[in-house]
Hints:
alpha/beta; TATA-Binding Protein; 7-stranded mixed β-sheet; 7-stranded antiparallel β-sheet; about 25% strand
Amino acid sequence: MIKTIATTPYDDQKPGTSGLRKKVPVFQQKNYAENFIQAIFDSLEGFAGETLVIGGDGRFYNREVIQIAIKMAAANGFGRVLVGRGGILSTPAASNIIRKYKAFGGIVLSASHNPGGPTEDFGIKYNIGNGGPAPEKITDAIYARTKVIDSYKIADVEDINLDNEGAQDVAGMSVTVIDPVTDYAALMEELFDFAAIRSLISSGFNVVFDAMSAVTGPYAKEIIENRLGAPKGSVLNFVPLPDFGGHHPDPNLVHARALYDQMMADDAPDFGAASDGDGDRNLIIGKGIFVTPSDSLALLAANAHLAPGYSAGLAGIARSMPTSGAADRVAEKLGIKLYETPTGWKFFGNLLDAGLATICGEESAGTGSNHVREKDGLWAVLLWLNILAVRKESVIDIVHSHWATYGRNYYSRHDYEEVDSAAANGLVTALRDQLATLPGKSFGALKVVAADDFAYHDPVDGSVSKNQGIRILFEGGSRVVFRLSGTGTSGATLRVYIERFEPDTSRHGIETQAALADLIAVADEIAGIRSRTGRDAPSVIT
Ligand code: G16
């Protein structure tokens, strides 16, 4: 019943910022998914008889790869698989299941916020027993294995019934189909004051949540409407669709534009939010104000003690390097440590496991805490609602008073998508070549005080990750950061992160791009973005 199938390696299976992401037709090549899954198993030790969690965001090709992964888990000696009904598990829910049921690890099928469909994106990611993305030493081992793989093991059995809860036998391994929502909703009830949020909502506070036809729909329906009492219809686009309804399930101001417009109207609801393809990102918009992910991290950290799960305070805060410094000043005021990591949630795992950080966040719309080992979109929404229920102030008032206390970090990210890879790499190399000569140089009123290529020294395991983004720091705390995305699936995506710290409250009302205009111009002057990429303007500004 167990077959060993001969295969040949593919040379493009290097995991990026978050697992292996490629177009569906790439994954549909003969043995492509099988090779990668076998490479994962071949890079692990000691899983015989152990539990593996499998689930995905429901995108096109999800069910097919779940069938393959289950049959391969059986053939490779796992003792049990837990899989979400219909093959559905949001990324944070998968992390919770791994932790709660003490699984050996998990396979999460998702390309996150990237579009889905027959010619769109798909992805496979391995999470370790702490519930978090595999660290680099494991992803490096997986990649090395993909380059030499010559066979994989699979159980030659009928497809598994993914739609009925309960246990089945697959070649001697037990497969249990579980409800994807129950355990996650229970965890949220432990962390947050549902009674206080219910009473806020019943007092007429209007919430709208856009699930973007992606995985968070069933979770948000159950929690926001059924348990917290928001009227039916508060959760939009709640049925997960394989192609996300033809949309890009990325909760930003471009792809969640309709929500943004609704929140800026005179008769806007009090609170608007959205999550992405696999449920780990979040978008927070108050009536008349978009809260940047970097500000949201700072605000959540400053107010987390208002929620029962965090009433004892925070051990520390962690943010990715390109995320704004807004959280740094909160950490300073709270007298706790701030950790600056490379982009990628996997870098937070050690800090969370060691109890050094409680809350983590990234400019890329991710925030989360030590409750799981992934960022968690709905968690961020519920923490916001808990804070609003306790403070009884509007989102805009809370944000403005935060800026008045801590100063405002004007912040924007400019993305140049599908740029020619050679041109993008040339731009980065040329920047690296300038690093030594930039400090001391002035560009108009902006004087460079430091410039480097960010390297991270993990304080827990001592590992070093180099070349994590080029930082140019100016006098007064302004900054421009350049890096290439590790999640795109065609060409290169250049990300330029621009930030200015403004302590003066009277200058907190400037439109963001205007407040950053001189830095944006200097970024182009130093990096030659226009001339090297041939682009006049970014593809996406967030
Ligand atoms: C992933 C990672 C995040 C990272 C983001 C963007 O998010 O988990 O840590 O910030 O990609 O990465 P990049 O700038 O390299 O594209 P997600 O939501 O795509 O899983």
